[in-house]
Write a structure and sequence with these properties.
single chain, mainly alpha
Length: 126
């Protein structure tokens, strides 16, 4: 059986999903993005990956690195999955425009600043 991703792996998933969304949304307008159902659906999918990865972070990690509102990110995923029929495209657009770049910066900072060998051995580095 393969070992499940740990916190670093989850952050890498978030980082890659953000990169994919930002690359695909670059140069798009709200209208062009929502008109192309496949592109829009892909962006929603990668947004769900971000939320799922945030949801799967360990409790210790979320408590220690609480400068990111992990619960809000996870709740967005739950809304997209379970409330898919109520998803407002404007909310998705706002996340792309306002939230992803700051989250990308925060995740990159965490990936670079944490001693992962210590962390994965369950010894927080703070």
């Amino acid at each position: 059986m393969r070992e499940p991703p740990r916190d670093k792996g989850r952050l890498l998933h978030i980082q890659e999903a953000i990169k994919t969304i930002l690359e695909r949304a670059q140069g798009q307008t709200f209208e062009s993005l929502t008109k192309d159902k496949i592109v829009y659906g892909g962006i929603v999918y990668y947004t769900m990956i971000i939320g799922e990865a945030a949801y799967k972070l360990s409790r210790d990690f979320v408590a220690t690195y609480n400068q990111v509102d992990w619960d809000v990110i996870a709740n967005m995923r739950h809304h997209l999955v379970h409330g898919y029929y109520q998803v407002n495209a404007k909310d998705v657009w706002d996340v792309i425009q306002s939230d992803l770049k700051p989250l990308q910066d925060q995740v990159t900072q965490l990936l670079e600043s944490i001693d992962w060998e210590e962390w994965e051995n369950n010894k927080p580095t703070i």
